[in-house]
Amino acid sequence: MSNFLERIKERAKADKKTIILPESMDARTFEAAEKVLKEDIANIIIIGTPEEIEKYGKGYDISKATIINPFTYEKTEEYLNLFVELRKSKGLTYEQAKEQALGDYMYYACLMVKAGDADGVVSGACHSTANTLRPSLQIVKTKPGVKLVSAFFVMVVPDCEYGANGTFIFADSGLEQNPDPEKLAAIAACSAESFELLAETEAYVAMLSHSTMGSAKHADVDKVVEATRICKEANPNLNVDGELQLDAAIVPSVGSSKAPGSSVAGKANVLVFPDLDAGNIGYKLVQRLAKAEAYGPITQGIAMPINDLSRGCSADDIVGVCAITAVQAQAMNK
Predict the structure, then answer these.
(1) What is the model's pLDDT at position 147?
(2) Residues ≥6 apart with Cβ < 8 Å to 51
(3) 54-58, 88-92, 248-252, 293-297: which has the highest mean pLDDT?
(4) Which of 11, 74, 133, 262 has the lowest CB atom count within 10 Å?
(5) 306-315 pLDDT tens trace
(6) Which residue spans within 61-197 are E strands per DSSP?
(7) pLDDT at 1 > cutoff 70
(8) What residues contact 84, with CB distance under 8 A and at least 6 apart?
(9) How far apart are CA 215 and CA 247, in angstroms?
(10) Looking at the structure, do residues 10 and 96 belong to the same domain, yes or no?
(11) Which has the closest alpha carbon to 308: 290, 295, 291, 292?
């Protein structure tokens, strides 16, 4: 386990939060729950019927978890009424609310968080990103003052001298398909804040491109240049620069030759990709070829921490994201 994750787990244990795992139809949920509870990282709520718990949880010690059967739980009525209230402008009826919340536990989990009965949700082992985020945006909604919800991966690269001892944030690598300059600037600012919360060190944000400081001309480059300008203007104290090629962003010798005078070149630890294709390909390359730990997609910009998982995740990945979610919840409660 990396020092990064050890530290996150320590912080999670210091002020324990309650995290919901709604995917009771996947054995990885129970394996992860057992580990989280054994390590005392967080309190765990699993949503499911006795039949689901019996079928998929067999062989795992989840005796310390809170199991909630939404069909019989005494607060279900309260949650359904809350759902109707939140979506009344969209014409949601009680019957529709019931069908959605009991048919998809992610909706139920978000209602529990909204009602103040849990601090965060981790889902996505067997649901798409859209199915994880739609309920959270409908029910929990965005954080006040935040322009958009985006997603990042925390990448921890073994034996790496770049970034913060091999720790980086890659954004947006999970959600925003083709952000315009304003959105890209917002992703950069949010990602810096997330990096400083999780890595406990100063963020250096590189706005990535196939060009460094005007070396290539293209509309895609212009987008990154404009995003950098907007981000600097809105966040004068942030270390952010661009456009930078990846090597100029993280390798000191390349940074000083390609972008002399840049405050970020050669020491970037937050990598902002121009679009989702680049971000998603980038994180998977580093995960598979450099054997990096990849935690995410972690969301930023939602009013409470609701985090997604890659469908190829392991139980240990779920444990890591639970710990990160707990640390995000601590920060939100302050």
Answers:
(1) 78
(2) none
(3) 248-252
(4) 74
(5) 998 888 889 9
(6) 66-68, 120-123, 150-156, 167-171
(7) no
(8) 92, 93, 94, 97
(9) 14
(10) yes
(11) 295
- Cα separation of 331 and 334, whole Å? 5
234 and 315 part of one domain: no
Distances (CA, A) of 254 to 128, 246, 251, 260, 331: 38, 10, 5, 9, 36
Q: Cα 129 to chain center, whole Å?
A: 11
Same domain, 322 and 254: no
pTM of the entire structure?
A: 0.90
Provide DSSP, 180-244.
Answer: -HHHHHHHHHHHHHHHHHHH-S--EEEEE-SSSTTSS--HHHHHHHHHHHHHHHH-TTSEEEEEE
CATH (domain of 28): 3.40.50.10950
For 180, the token pair is 């315009």
Does 297 sit behind a cis peptide bond, omega within 30 degrees of 0 on the bond before it? yes
Cis peptide before 226 (omega within 30 of 0): no
Kind plus residue range of the DSSP H or E element containing 47: strand 43-47
Domain that holds residue 51: 3-141+310-333
Does residue 130 sit in the same domain as residue 75? yes
Which of 202, 152, 155 has its CA nearest to residue 2? 155
* Residue 38: C-alpha distances to residues 24, 53, 54, 62, 78 (Å): 19, 19, 20, 9, 32
CA gap 5, 244 in Å, rounded: 29
pLDDT the model gives residue 85: 94
CATH number, position 283: 3.40.50.10750
Rounded alpha-carbon distances, angstroms, from residue 24 to 145, 221, 224: 34, 45, 42
Measure the N-to-C terminal CA separation of the chain; round to a whole number of Å. Answer: 28
Cβ(131)–Cβ(22) below 8 Å: no
Q: Please count the helices (runs of H) and the strands (runs of E) in the chain.
A: 13, 11
Cα torsion angle, 11, 44, 303, 182, sign: positive
Dihedrals phi, psi of 25, to nearest 5 degrees: -100, 25
- For the cut 80, the answer to whether the pLDDT of residue 129 exceeds it is no
